[in-house]
């Protein structure tokens, strides 16, 4: 058993039990009483973890979605797919490391996989701009999607970004335009598209690769038109109100499934995806296999029409006659 590391603030009860359990497991002369105590602590750990994660509020879910040990796109590429061949560049400006794209095999299915990548170490994170893609990242994604359609390959996208890169250079190279263009291209792409929110789904950066026939999200992910800090800065003029914004935005998996924004919520292992990458990858793979086989049996014209209607019907509003 690896030594536990301090986690998030609300995970303190879990951490305390893990420390006690680790100390007992390390004992070399553990007798029957110690073994009994180890089994008791493991049961208690599972129960406390379940209770903590059943009661997460929206701001705590944001913290879990941003957890440093959470599996990223590169992790799913190694655990879910085989024979991944990465494709680089947008043929306009350069290669954006915040977006990974390439051919892969999902069991016997040939697919195109595109996803945001944050990086694990600080060096990787700076190279990937912490998952914030530039225009060339979305142009790369569009080029690979068109290639997938040419060879009749389904497209799978993994969404995990706080938002598109907000720098001056990105704006000069057409950040807003290229996100809109990517959404338009995906809406009419003649191949099945499956989108999965694996962590953060923030702002237009997420929507840039988020138009598909099916949209799924992990249980402790969020998907929103704006990050909590961005919303707090606009409405309350300060990022310290991010927790209040998180509660108001209703962007958790539970809310979005009720609103009809996402089609499926993929349950996470006990204690979150960051505690068991392999089990989380197995659940994602099971969902991808099942859903892709359903989509591949649908005629393309019918698929495109359903995709269009899906996004046209999003949103809830009330209509009433004018008092006049």
Can you describe this structure?
The protein is an alpha/beta fold and 324 residues long. It has two domains: 9-55; 62-312, 2-enoyl-CoA Hydratase, Chain A, domain 1 (Alpha-Beta Complex), CATH 3.90.226.10. The protein is 48% helix and 15% strand. The protein contains 14 helices and eight strands. Strands 1, 2, 3, 4, 5, 6, 7 and 8 form an eight-stranded mixed β-sheet that branches. Helix 1 (12-26) packs antiparallel against helix 2 (32-54). The longest helix is centred in the N-terminal third of the chain and has 23 residues, at 32-54. The protein is globular. The mean pLDDT is 91.
Give a short overview:
The protein has 324 residues and is an alpha/beta fold. The chain has helices at residues 12-26, 32-54, 58-65, 73-79, 122-127, 135-150, 168-172, 175-188, 203-207, 228-235, 242-249, 253-259, 277-296, 300-312; strands at residues 82-86, 99-106, 109-116, 155-161, 193-202, 214-218, 222-224, 264-266.
Total beta strands: 8
CATH overall fold name of the largest domain: 2-enoyl-CoA Hydratase, Chain A, domain 1
Q: Which CATH class of the largest domain is shown?
A: Alpha Beta
The structure class reads: alpha/beta
Mean pLDDT: 91
Q: Indicate the overall shape.
A: globular
End-to-end gap: 72 Å
Which sequence of SSEs, written as H and E, runs from N to C?
HHHHEEEHHEHHEHEEHHHEHH
Number of folding domains?
2
Strand content: 15-25%
CATH superfamily of the largest domain: 2-enoyl-CoA Hydratase, Chain A, domain 1
What radius of gyration results from the CA coordinates?
21 Å
Helix fraction?
Answer: 40-55%
Largest sheet: 8 strands, mixed
Return the CATH architecture of the largest domain.
Alpha-Beta Complex
């Amino acid at each position: 058993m690896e030594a536990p590391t301090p986690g998030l603030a609300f995970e303190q009860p879990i951490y305390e039990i893990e420390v006690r359990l680790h100390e007992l497991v390390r004992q070399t002369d553990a007798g029957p009483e110690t073994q009994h105590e180890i089994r008791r602590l493991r049961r208690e750990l599972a129960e406390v973890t379940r209770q903590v994660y059943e009661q997460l509020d929206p701001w705590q879910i944001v913290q879990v979605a941003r957890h440093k040990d959470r599996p990223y796109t590169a992790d799913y590429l190694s655990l879910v797919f085989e024979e991944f061949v990465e494709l680089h560049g947008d043929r306009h400006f350069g290669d954006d490391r915040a977006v990974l794209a390439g051919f892969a095999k999902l069991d016997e299915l040939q697919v195109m996989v595109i996803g945001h990548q944050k990086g694990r170490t600080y060096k990787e994170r700076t190279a990937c701009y912490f998952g914030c893609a530039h225009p060339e990242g979305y142009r790369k994604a569009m080029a690979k999607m068109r290639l997938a359609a040419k060879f009749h390959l389904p497209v799978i996208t993994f969404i995990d970004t706080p938002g598109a890169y907000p720098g001056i250079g990105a704006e000069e190279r057409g950040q807003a335009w290229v996100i809109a263009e990517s959404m338009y291209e995906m809406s009419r792409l003649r191949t099945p598209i499956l989108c999965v929110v694996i962590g953060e789904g923030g702002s237009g950066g997420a929507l840039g690769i988020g138009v598909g026939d099916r949209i799924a999200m992990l249980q402790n992910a969020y998907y929103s038109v704006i990050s909590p800090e961005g919303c707090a800065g606009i409405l309350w003029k300060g990022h310290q109100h991010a927790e209040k914004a998180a509660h108001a935005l209703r962007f958790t998996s539970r809310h979005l499934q009720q609103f009809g924004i996402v089609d499926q919520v993929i349950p996470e292992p006990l204690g979150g995806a960051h505690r068991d990458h392999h089990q989380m990858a197995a659940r994602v793979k099971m969902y991808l296999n099942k859903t892709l086989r359903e989509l591949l049996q649908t005629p393309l014209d019918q698929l495109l029409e359903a995709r269009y209607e899906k996004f046209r019907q999003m949103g809830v509003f009330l209509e009433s006659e004018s008092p006049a």
